[in-house]
Amino acid sequence: MIILKYFRFKNYSMKETILHISHTHISTTESRIMKQLEDIKKKFSNYKIITIGIRKESKYNNDLFPLKGIKDLSFSLITKKLFFIPKFIKHFLNYIELIIRSIFIIYKNKLKIKIVHCHFFTVLPIGYIIKFLFNCKLVYDAHELESAKSFVKYSKLIFFIEKFLWKKIDLFITVSPSILNWYNKNFGKKKNSIAVFNSPKIKKITKIKKSTLRNKLKISKNDLIFVYVGSFQYGRGINHMLNVFSNSSIKSHLVFIGYGILENDIKKFSNKFNNIHILKPVPHNELVQFISSANIGLSIIEKVSLSDFYCLPNKFFECAFANLYILASNFPDMKRLVKFYSLGKCISPNIKSLTREVKSIENNKNKIKVFKKNLTNLSWEAQSQKLIQNYKNITHKN
Q1: What is the DSSP string of 150-183?
Q2: Which of the two residues, 384 and 205, has the higher pLDDT score?
Q3: Whether the Cβ atoms of residue 343 and residue 372 lie closer than 8 Å to each other
Q4: Which residues, in sequence order, are bridge partners of residue 171?
C-alpha cells in the first residue's frame, strides 16, 4: 500500500458512482444483488450505478442487462482459457486479472467512485484497493459466514484478511443476525453493520393461478405436496428427503425446483418413484405464487459448517410468503423466526426426524393449518429500507 499511494487516481469532477463488484455474473446468478441495485438506483438517482462481475461469454451487450439505467461493465477472464497450467497458478492469475482489469475499467471510464460495494469475500481485497486508490467508502456484503462456509478452502487466510480489513470497512452487510453477531464478536463491534434478509419483493410477485404447480404435475388436491426450492447441492438435506419420500409408507409428493450438482441423483429417484418430481427453476417473480399450491416448504439445512448453522436461506422466506407450512432445521435464526411468526416447525436435520414429522403430518393434516403473523417486516421492502438508510449514513445523504 505504501507503493500504491503514489498511484492514487484523481477523482474527476463529474457524477459520482456507486460500484457493485462480484466474482460472479450478477445479472444471471445473483437475485439478491439485483434487488439491491434496483432499489439503490431509485433512491440514489443522482449517482451512476455501475456493476463489475465475471461472465462466461466473451462478447456481451450491456443493453441486455435487465435493469435500466445501470451500466454493466462485467467481462470474461482471459486467464481462464489457460488450461495447460496447474489449477492453483491459474486461480492466482484469474484473481490478478480481475484486480487489474477492474481498476483499469474505473480509470478508463473516469469514474468518480463514492461507494464500492463488495459482494462475497473474494472481491473484498479488490474493494480495499479501490477504496485506497479512489478515496471512497467500502461496503462489504458477506452473503455467508465467509471463513466458515461448507467445503471452503483457506478458511484461516480468509479469517485473517477479514480481520485485517475490518476497520477499513465503512458498512458491513450480511444475511442473518447470528452471522452479524459472529463478525462483531470476533472482529470488534461495528456501528454501521446490518443483517439484510434475502427475502422476496412482495410487489414483484407475479400473480398466476394458485393451482399452477399442482396442475402441472397432475397431483390430486387430496394429496399433500412438500416442496424444495433452490440449489441442488450437498448439505441441503436433499439425500435425506429422497430417502424419506422413496419409502413406500410415505404417500405425499415431494417436488424439487432448481438446479445443481445433485440434479441427476434427483432425476433417478423421480424416474423410479411416482411421488418424487423435479422441475426446472422458475423466475424469481413467479416462484412464490407458483409454489403456493403446495402444502409444506422444506428448509432442511445440514450442519456441515458454522455458516450453514447460522443461515437464513432465501428458500425459507419464499416458502413463508407462499403461505406454506415450513419444516426447517432447528438452527438459531430459522428457529427464532418460525416461533415468532408461527411459520411451522423446526426439527433435527436427519432422516429419522424428517420421517417422523412427515408421517405425523400425513396422519393429521390439520396440523399444518397455522395462522401466521403479519410478514411485512420480513419482506424485501422492509429489508431494503435498512440498506438504503445505511447507504445514506455513509454518503451523508438525508
Answers
A1: TT-S-HHHHHHHHHHHGGG-SEEEES-HHHHHHH
A2: 384
A3: yes
A4: 139
Contact present, 227 and 206 (Cβ < 8 Å): no
Q: Over 80: is that where the pLDDT of 341 sits?
A: yes
- Output the CA–CA distances (angstroms, integers) from residue 131 to 75, 95, 105, 166, 246, in the order listed: 21, 18, 15, 13, 53
Query: 41: part of which helix (H) or strand (E)?
Result: helix 31-43
Could you identify the residue written with the cell 444483488?
33
How does DSSP assign 69-123, residue by residue?
TEEE--B--GGGG-TTS-HHHHHHHHHHHHHHHHHHHHHHTT-EEEEEEEESGGG
Q: For the stretch 246-262, what's the b/e string if a residue is b when 16 or more beta carbons lie within 10 angstroms of its beta carbon?
A: eeeebebbbbbbbbeeb
pLDDT confidence bin for 123, thresholds 50/70/90: very high
CATH topology of domain 203-375: Rossmann fold (3.40.50)
Same fold for the domain at 4-199+380-395 and the one at 203-375? yes
CB atoms under 10 Å from CB of 301, counted, come to 24
CA angle 257, 263, 268 (to 5 degrees): 105
In the chain, where the domains are located: 4-199+380-395, 203-375
Share of the chain above pLDDT 70, in %: 92
pLDDT tens, 352-372?
A: 999 999 999 999 988 888 778
**Rounded distance, CA 387 to CA 39, Å?**
9
Residues 248, 276: contact at Cβ < 8 Å?
no
Collapse the DSSP code of 50 into the 3-class scheme (helix H, G, I; strand E, B; otherwise coil) and give the result.
Answer: strand
C-alpha count within 13 angstroms, C-beta hemisphere, residue 350:
3
Partners of 140 in the β-ladder: 118, 172
Homologous superfamily assigned to 4-199+380-395 = Glycogen Phosphorylase B; (3.40.50.2000)
| pLDDT per residue as tens digits for the range 252-265 | 999 999 999 999 99
- Which residue is listed with cell 436427519? 350
**Distance of alpha carbon 292 from alpha carbon 295, whole angstroms:** 8
Class of residue 378 by CB neighbours under 10 A (exposed 0-12, middle 13-18, buried 19+): buried
